[in-house]
Amino acid sequence: MVEDKLRTSNYLGFFLQADGHSQ
C-alpha cells in the first residue's frame, strides 16, 4: 500500500506542477 501512496503523491505533485506552469 506504501507504493500506491507514493505513486499517488508523485501523480499529485506532477499535476500540481503542470497546473502551476499553466498559470
From TrEMBL:
This is Uncharacterized protein.
